[in-house]
Structures are given as structure tokens and as C-alpha cells.
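Preliminary data (for renewal application), MTE complex.
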Amino acid sequence: MLIKRNPNGIDLPFSSEITPQSVYQGRRQFIARMAATAAVGSGIWEMANREALAQDGPKLAARRNAALSTDEKLTSFKDASNYNNYYEFGLDKGDPAENAHTLRTRPWTLRIEGEVKKPMTIDIDTLLKLAPLEERIYRLRCVEGWSMVIPWLGYSLSHLIRQVEPTGNAKFVEFTSLADSKQMPGLRSGVLDWPYVEGLRLDEAMHPLTLLTLGMYGQVLPNQNGAPVRLIVPWKYGFKSAKSIVRIRLVSRQPRTAWNDSAPREYGFYSNVNPNVDHPRWSQASERRIGETGLFQPKRKTLMFNGYDQVASLYTGMDLKRFY
Ligand code: MTE
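Predicted structure:
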């Protein structure tokens, strides 16, 4: 994600030219580290091997939820697991696939607390069995202007939230990702105020489309896609879908979020996919589907709510330009 204007105030076409210096320096450090890894000899083999292993991760059985799935052509597993945003592992799209092998996904617990009658700490293996796993083919649209179609595995987050019995004061839900500098070299970059935190209104979190996600393409989540548990909120820009979640907190007030803190004018709390609200530095009217890379491949028109019209009633009466 690109967070600041170029000092001249001119919008430039290449991300390398509009990326802030801190991001840039972080990238250089990553490149230097990669070069160092390659220099020890076995680095390249390890990288290739990791990619092969990632495509053969532990399988997860799930029943397709056809009613909630799009029938559009799937993005390839290779693209979905090699073109990632996961800043805790680096700033370039290929960094997470290369660096996230240091993430330890077992043991893993998720704490659910705050305005609830029954706070819980759940082990990842219990979480996997809390409700029947479904496969849902969702579009994911990044605020940067690209999209993918991915078969995610999981169940509605509402199953989990109901278990903890929200109190009458619970109005919002805050999601916190792991922030461990021993496992996550990107924390040194200082691009965001770690940990990565995102939030939803309680009714958005309870919407059946909001998926507590434990896998994709029939297997557990690759580390770079947010293992072992993440969120997918398909009608919002991708950054609302926090990865590697360790804590969910139900709260009475709208929580701060990492991207909103870093650039409030650019990344609002709601961040519903909306072709009529441009990002301050680029249009959101169209998108590039990853994998459709031909020179003359037309961009696709971006759809309101990313095409998930069933959520429109959540925002009745709201000015979606003001609450972007
Ligand atoms: N979660 C954490 N913890 N850190 C991140 O950098 N990036 C977000 C989101 N979740 C991010 C995150 C952004 S900008 C996007 S577009 C999606 O993850 C990308 O998910 P994917 O890599 O599985 O496609």
C-alpha cells in the first residue's frame, strides 16, 4: 500500500516513485538480506523448495458454499500465494512468499475478549473444528487496484462471536495480528505502527459473508496468506482482512486501525469497495485481475461493494462518500 504523496505533490505512475522513504529503505534492507541468503549457497534451493512445499500443504476438507461463491475463473494458487501484501514480511509483493517461512503457526491461540460475557482463548485446532468448514469463492479487491478470485476455506465469523456472547455495549470488533519481531523481519520497517489492527462494526462482523478464514485452495493457509487464521471481508478493500490474528476484541467505540492511523485521508474505517469514491491519489473505478496480464487486456469495472450487493442494507442512510 502506498501511503504518501511525492514531495512535489505530483502523482506519479510508478509505485517506486511515490513510495515514502521509510518504505523504500525497508525494501533495500530486504534486498540486501535476500542477497545475503543467496550468498550462503543453499538459499536459492531453499526458496524453490519452500514454494513447492507451499503448494502441497496439509489438506482441509470443506463443502463448497455455492450460494455465496462467485463462478468467475479462479486466480492460480501460484499467483495468490506469490503476490501478497503482508508488510510484517516485507514491502514488495514477492517478499511474504520468500520470508514468511519464519512464522510459527503452531502452537497458536486466539483470544476473544472485551464486551463479552464469556471471554475465551481458543487453540487453533479447536478453532478448526468450531463449525463445519466451507469453501467460498470470493473476489478480493485490493485498494491498490488489483483483484483476485480465491477459494477460501472457513466459516462465518458470527459462529465464533456468538460463542462469547457479546454484551449490549459491544458495537465494534477489533482484530489484532501477531507482531513478533523474532518471526517478522518487516516489523523493523516502521511503515505502520505495529501490531496491524483492523476493525469492523459489529453488524458487519456478524454478516454471514464475513469469513473467519483457515485455508484456501483445499489446504491450510500458506504463511504468506495469513496463516493460521485471518479474516476475509469480501466487500471491503483487502486491507480490512487482517492476517495471522491473535486477538479479537469486542468494544463499544470505533477502534483505531493501523492504516487509518498512518494515512487517515487515504484509508477510512469503512473502506467499502466503492468505484464512486476515488482514493486521493488514484481512481477506484476499475481494477486489474491478477493473472490477466496481456498488454491489451482491458481492466475490469469495479463494482459497488465489490459486487456483494447483499451488504447494501448495512449502510442504508449512510453517506458512503463521507464514511469512506
Ligand atoms: N494483514 C496484516 N497483518 N498485514 C498486512 O500487511 N495486508 C492487507 C491484508 N491483511 C496485510 C494484512 C492487504 S493491503 C491486503 S490487499 C490483503 O491482506 C492481501 O491478502 P493476500 O496477500 O492473501 O492476497
